Amino acid sequence: MQDWLWATAADLGRGIGAGDIDPVDLCEVYLAAIEAHPHRDRIYARVTADRARVEAAAASDRARAGRRVSPLDGVPVSWKDLFDTAGVATEAGTALMAGRVPQNDAEVLRAATAAGLVCLGKTHMSEIAFSGLGLNPITATPPCVNDDAAVPGGSSSGAAASVAFGLAAAAIGSDTGGSVRIPSIWNDLVGFKTTHGRLSLTGVVPLCSEFDTVGPLCRSVEDAALVTAALEGSRAPDLAGASLTGLRFAALQSVVLDDVAEASMAGYHAALKRLADAGAVIEEVAAPELERAFAMSLPLYTADAYANWRDLVEAAPDKMFPQILERVSAGRDVPAHDYLALWAELRDLRRSYDARMAGFDAVLCPGAANMPPDADRLMTDDAYYKTQNLLTLRNTRVANLMGGASVALPVGVPSVGLLINVAGGQDDRLLRIAAAAEAALR
After folding, report:
1. Predicted confidence (pLDDT) per residue in 219-234, tens digit
2. Which end of the chain is more exposed for a tag (fewer CB within 10 A), N or C?
3. pTM of the model
4. Where in the sequence is the domain holding 23, given as residue range(s)?
5. Could you tell me if 217 and 183 are in contact, meaning their C-beta atoms sit under 8 angstroms apart?
6. The pLDDT of residue 345 is above 90
7. What is the CB neighbour count within 10 angstroms for residue 259?
8. CATH number, domain at 101?
9. Which helix (H) or strand (E) holds 76?
10. Final residue belonging to a domain, choices 199, 232, 265
C-alpha cells in the first residue's frame, strides 16, 4: 500500500475503478503518512481527517455499486490555504486572517467534491500568495524535496511539498505570476496554469484579481487534465496519441534567457534537443513586447494586490512579514489613471504578442531562471530576497502578462523545468502538447 503514495492520481483512479484499491484504505494510507511525516507541520496548515474519511467512505460505496462519478472519484488531494473550506479555517498564510472560518466551500472545491475527490487538508503558502519563493516566517516554510536548506517555491509551496513528499496524490494551488509552476519546477512536478477566468475564483482569497488563476500541481500531465476537469465539472481532453511530430515551437529569446542558472540552462537546452529528436520544429523568436510588459508589470500587480488587501494591511501592518508588507504597500502609490492606462497598453501588447506567435503551436522557455535559494539567507539579506524573488517569477510571468495558459514540465534535472505556453483559451490543446512533450522528456 505504501507505493500508492507515489502513484499518479490517474493510476490510483484506475485502481479504484478496477476494484484493486478501496478509497477508504487509500485515504487511511495518506492520513497515516501525513501524521508520521517529520515535515507534516511545515507542509499542512490543517489536516481535514474527518472530512476525508467521510468522502472516502462515500467514494468506496459508489465504487462498489459501480456508480463512480469521475475518473478520480476516491483520490485524495490537498488544497492551498486560500481555498475556502466550510467550517475549517482558511487563512492565506497570514496572521491578518488568523481564525477566519468560512461558511462555504470555494466553488472549485464544491465541484471537486462532487467529482469524488477526497480533501486531505489545507497546505501552507507564501503570505497572501505574494511571493514566488515559498518562504513564510509567519506560518511555515515547507521543505524543497531536493534541498531541505532551500525554499520550495511559492506561493503554492505546501501544495507542491504535499505531492513531492507523498502526502497527497495531487494538489490544487493558484497562479498569479508563477505560483503553481515555480513550486512544481523546484519539486520536479507538473504544474498547470489555466487561462485566467477558466476556473472559478469564487471562494478563493484573492491576490491580484486580474491575474489570479487556479491550477493543479501533479505527477503527470494526465493528472493535470483530470484534476482540472474535476475543478470545473467537465470532461478531460483525450490525450491519447499526442505527438510532437511536425509541431512548430517558438524558443523565446526576449527576457527569459538573461541570468539563467547554469543547471537551468543546461536542462533547458537538453530538453529542446529531446523535443526536436521527437519530431518538433524549434525556431528562435524574439518578442520585444515582453520588454515593455515587464517594465510596466510592477504597478499592475501591486495596485491590484493593494486594492484587495488594503483594509487588512493598514489595520495591522506589524503582523506581516516585512518583505510582503513592502511589496503589497507599493500599490498604495499607483494612481488610478496610471493603472488604467497601463492595462490599456498591456492589452495592446498582448494582441501584438499573440499575432507574433500565431504561426507556432506553442512557445518554449526555461522554467525558473534560478535554482531554489537558501532559506536562511533570504531571511537575513533583504537585497538577496528581492532579486531572487523577481528572478524566480520572471519566466513564469510571461504567460500571466500575455494572458496565456502554461504548463511546467520536469526535464530530468532536479529543480529544473521547461515552460510550454499557448494563447489564452487553448488550455486543452496545450495539455495534448504537454503530454507529447512529457513522453519525450522521460
Report:
1. 999 999 999 999 999 9
2. C
3. 0.98
4. 2-232
5. yes
6. yes
7. 10
8. 3.90.1300.10
9. strand 76-80
10. 232
Q: Are 410 and 188 in contact (CB under 8 A)?
A: yes
d(CA 135, CA 242): 37
Query: For the purposes of burial, counting CB atoms within 10 Å of the CB of 131, is it exposed (0-12), middle (13-18) or buried (19 or more)?
Result: buried
Q: Which residues of 369-396 are buried (b: 16+ CB within 10 A; e: fewer)?
A: bbbbbbbeebeeeeeebeebbbbbbbbb
- 147 and 265 assigned to the same domain: no
Q: Torsions phi, psi of 234, nearest 5?
A: -120, -175
- Do 252 and 204 share a structural domain? no
User: What one-character-per-residue DSSP string does 246-313 give?
Assistant: T-EEEEE-TTTTTT--HHHHHHHHHHHHHHHHTT-EEEEE--THHHHHHHTHHHHHHHHHHHHHHHHH
With bands split at pLDDT 50, 70 and 90, how would you rate the model's confidence at 313? very high
Tell me which residues are annotated as active site. 80, 155, 179
> What residues contact 50, with CB distance under 8 A and at least 6 apart?
none
Model confidence pLDDT, tens digit, residues 195-248: 999 999 999 999 999 999 999 999 999 999 999 999 999 999 999 999 999 999
Determine the residue type at 2. Q
Number of independent structural domains in the chain: 2
User: Could you tell me if residue 122 is inside a domain?
Assistant: yes
Distance of alpha carbon 141 from alpha carbon 135, whole angstroms = 5
Per this entry, what is the length of the chain? 442
Q: Backbone phi, then psi, for 79, in 5-degree steps?
A: -130, 130
The three-state secondary structure class of 440 is helix
Cα–Cα distances in angstroms (integers) from residue 207 to residues 198, 211, 302, 369, 424, in the given order: 17, 8, 9, 23, 20
d(CA 61, CA 309): 43
**H or E stretch including 44?**
strand 44-47
Order of strands across the sheet with 362-366?
44-47, 118-123, 76-80, 171-175, 213-218, 190-193, 405-410, 417-422, 362-366, 248-252, 281-285
Contacts of 318 (CB under 8 A, 6+ apart): none
Q: What single-letter DSSP state applies at residue 219?
A: S
| Whether residues 257 and 215 fall in one domain | no
Q: Amino acid identity of 186?
A: W
Is-contact 228 216, C-beta < 8 A? Answer: yes
Q: Is the pLDDT of residue 277 over 90?
A: yes
Residues 135 and 281 in one domain: no
Residue 411's pLDDT is what? 98
Residues 10, 113, single domain; the answer is: yes
What would the pLDDT profile of 349-375 be if each residue is shown by its tens digit?
999 999 999 999 999 999 999 999 999
